[in-house]
């Protein structure tokens, strides 16, 4: 679901850039390839607005959900889904600095207008093999503003040189294998009486 989420966002931004008359320059790739010294890798992110996964964080507040489900008088036990927050770095590595700044501005503008993405309000390429089992999704984006020190660490980790960029926190991407661990009949009453306990 991580790839699917980022690919959906990539498609949405490509569509928006086309609508407003900008080039289709959105790429889902690792911005750390820029300045890596490998010409083939650098060409992938040259002149592009690059979406890179920065961090994965578990949403611990949702860990206390029940690990069973009652349906048709049967109790099914399974592991809880993993709820994730993804931190998405969007970097503009365009041909000119002003084009990079305009691209970042347009991305902020787009996500200001649409923060919540669901399977009903989002048109995406259903022919993509990765989306074959994707029936329902819902996630929202929130602008994340790191401190200067945190930003310095981020770009230091990615190679040192900084590009015009913005970070978004994508909330609640759920990963669930939906594997049943066990099942049993629902307990509706307890038999016996107090005399049975005294024997």
UniProtKB/TrEMBL annotation:
This is Pvc16 N-terminal domain-containing protein. It comes from the Bacteria. Residues 6-188 form the Pvc16 N-terminal domain. It comes from Tangfeifania diversioriginum. Pfam families: Pvc16_N.
